[in-house]
Each structure stands twice: as C-alpha cells, then as structure tokens.
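Q: I'm writing a short explainer about 4-amino-4-deoxychorismate lyase for a general audience and would like to include a description of its predicted shape. Could you first generate the structure from this sequence?
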Amino acid sequence: MDFPLFETLCIENGQVQNLALHQQRYENSLREFYAGQPYEIFSLAKILQKNTALWANLQSPIIRCRIDYNATQYHLQCFPYQRKTYQRFQPVICDDIDYHLKYSDRAIFNQLLKQKGDCDEIIIVKQGKITDCTIGNLILRQGSQWFTPDSPLLIGTQRTALLQQNKIKVRSIFLTDLADYEEIRLINALNPF
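A: Of course. Here's the predicted structure. Afterward I'll give you a sentence or two in plain language.
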C-alpha cells in the first residue's frame, strides 16, 4: 500500500499534543495532494482512540506516533521516544527543495544529511534564506527574543502553536545573518520549545 503523506504526533503522559493543528494540516494536505480526486477525511482523535493499545502499553512518558496515509487509508505506528539535544548545525544549500507537504519520501533529506560532517543536524538554505532542518523547524535567539524563518519548508504544528502563543516571531533570516543569533533550536511535534 502506498502512503505518500504522514503525520507525526507526540503523546506525552497519555495526552496527544497539538491535535487540532495536526488535524488541520492533515486535512489541508489531503485536499491539496488529492485535488480533483476522491478522498476521505478521518478524525485523527478517533484513529488514536481506536488504537490506544498500540501506545498505551509502551511504558514511556513520550510516544512518537506516526500516521501514514493516502486518500482513503492510513497506517499507524507508535514508538517510545527519547528527546535528543541538537547543538551543532551545518548549513547546506539546496535551492530546489520542495517539502511543503509532509511527504513520506524523504530521499532529499537523506542526500542533504550526507553533508552534515560531524554536526548534529543541518540547516537547509534555499535561495540564500534559512528554512528548516531535516526533522523540524528552526528557531533562533537574538537577545531574549526567539525568531523563526519566514521561509519554512513545512509549516510545523509546534511552530504554529508557538506563533499563536506569541513565544516566537517570524523574520526573514538569511545565511549571512547567522552570526547575529546566539542560539539555534530545532522544534517539531516531539521537541517543543
């Protein structure tokens, strides 16, 4: 079965994080990817409720839940998750990358990761601007204020939640501006601010 798109959700201490934002992105992705074709919208909350046994028995405070899907079907997997620390980032230029939907095919990221050297992760630079890393959005600190690039490859749910809470601000950030920031952090569904 071919599942071209997916969502990754965080279940922390039994609570699904940012579920409404995941549902919204999932529905928008279905509408765009399957435009002009029939598709069925599922409730992610109902999918999780129906499959509680997959994650309730994992004995981990943080569960990584991946839902791969196509127009009419889905496949759910759950794994214990341990948060990692990313401290060193290698800028990598890729001017033709397109990842505006959460595609299951991540071959482009695997190719780009070959350039990370001894760093923990890469910063993808497109047309001179900072975008994302391979597994999430980026936030950069200048003084006490945190900024996120105005040109993300994917609109992440964690990024959206932080913007709604006014904890971060959007800004154009060019590769040449990196020295102006004191800290860089990776954020995604499993790695909050």
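A: For your explainer, you could say: The chain has two domains: 5-80, 89-187.
Q: Perfect, that's easy to follow.
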